[in-house]
Write a structure and sequence with these properties.
Part of the ABC transporter FtsEX involved in cellular division. Keywords: ATP-binding, Cell cycle, Cell division, Cell membrane, Membrane, Nucleotide-binding. By secondary structure, the chain is of the alpha/beta class. The chain is 32% helix and 22% strand. The strands form 2 sheets. A 6-stranded mixed beta sheet has the order 6-7-8-3-9-10, with helices on both faces. Strands 2-1-4-5 form a 4-stranded antiparallel beta sheet, covered by helices on one side. Helix 5 (161-173) runs parallel beside helix 6. It is globular. 40% of the residues are buried. Bound molecules: adenosine-5'-triphosphate. Adenosine-5'-triphosphate binds at residues 32, 34-35, 38, 56, 58-64.
Length: 240
């Protein structure tokens, strides 16, 4: 397992991102209770440090794929591996530790309305027992990276949608996770804001994080030169 380094230089997060995670699906089938199957016997590898898009029509299974990676859903059959960990076998503390190594970004931001930008971003670190000093040390470079240094004291309803999504990215990455999962992060954004979000994710990827982004936005996918995993009829097919 790669180690999570600590942010040292406020002007450069490059040293802070650990070596990215490796992801593997081995003959995975996922069937929900009232449903035939969403994924059927799929195998897939995503290497450390890759940036991949996941596309597919509504209901095809994109979110399910991400949920399997962070243990929100368990496979009906097969194995889901993140780094050297079999996600299904993790329980309690070990599952929490895996989740600390994964930054998750959602389409609807999931910010706490009564808390400021800074509080939203640092809330998780507080819950994880980071010292106040360490939290402060991480906050500024993270705000800088997402372009929100001047808005740390605002509340979510005082921000645009694009800014809110950047807060949610900051929250996902402040602990410098080696794996970033973004589920339709641009689904509520206009093209300019979408592009900003993708550029931030690309920057984190250039620092070493493995990044997996689900999207419906074919234009965005075409604009970037990243591998694409298409989810269709229970299968995952990779473009390269
Ligand atoms: N908790 C659940 N219980 C039962 N069925 C579910 C559950 N979650 C998802 N499904 C079903 O699994 C299929 C895949 O859902 P999923 O959310 O992964 O698709 P998606 O590709 O992310 O869709 P969208 O693009 O609309 O977000 C759908 O048919 C959905 O109804």
């Amino acid at each position: 397992m790669s180690t999570v380094n600590i942010i040292k230089d406020p002007d450069s997060q490059k040293e802070d991102i650990p070596v990215g995670s490796r992801v593997e699906l081995r003959s995975v089938t996922k069937a929900y209770a009232n449903n035939s199957y969403t994924l059927l016997n799929v195998s897939l590898n995503i290497k450390k440090g890759e940036f991949v898009f996941v596309t597919g029509s509504s209901g095809s299974g994109k979110s399910t794929f991400l949920k399997l990676l962070y243990g929100q859903e368990l496979p009906t059959q097969g194995e889901v591996i993140v780094d050297d960990l079999n996600v299904e076998k993790l329980r309690g503390d070990r599952l929490s530790l895996l989740r600390r190594r994964i930054g998750i970004v959602f389409q609807d931001y999931k910010l706490i309305p009564q808390r400021t930008v800074a509080e939203n971003i640092t809330f998780v670190l507080q819950a994880q027992g980071y010292t106040r000093k360490e939290i402060q040390r991480r906050l500024e470079p993270t705000l800088k990276l997402v372009g929100l240094l001047s808005k740390a004291d605002r509340f979510p309803d005082q921000l645009s949608g694009g800014e809110q999504q950047r807060v949610s990215i900051a929250r996902a990455i402040i602990a410098t996770p080696p794996l970033i999962l973004a589920d339709e992060p641009t689904g509520n954004l206009d093209p300019d804001n979408s592009w900003q979000v993708i550029q931030i994710l690309q920057k984190l990827n250039s620092f070493g994080a493995t990044v997996i982004v689900t999207t419906h936005d074919e234009q965005l996918v075409r604009k970037c030169n990243h591998p694409v995993i298409q989810v269709k009829n229970g299968k995952l097919s990779r473009s390269y």
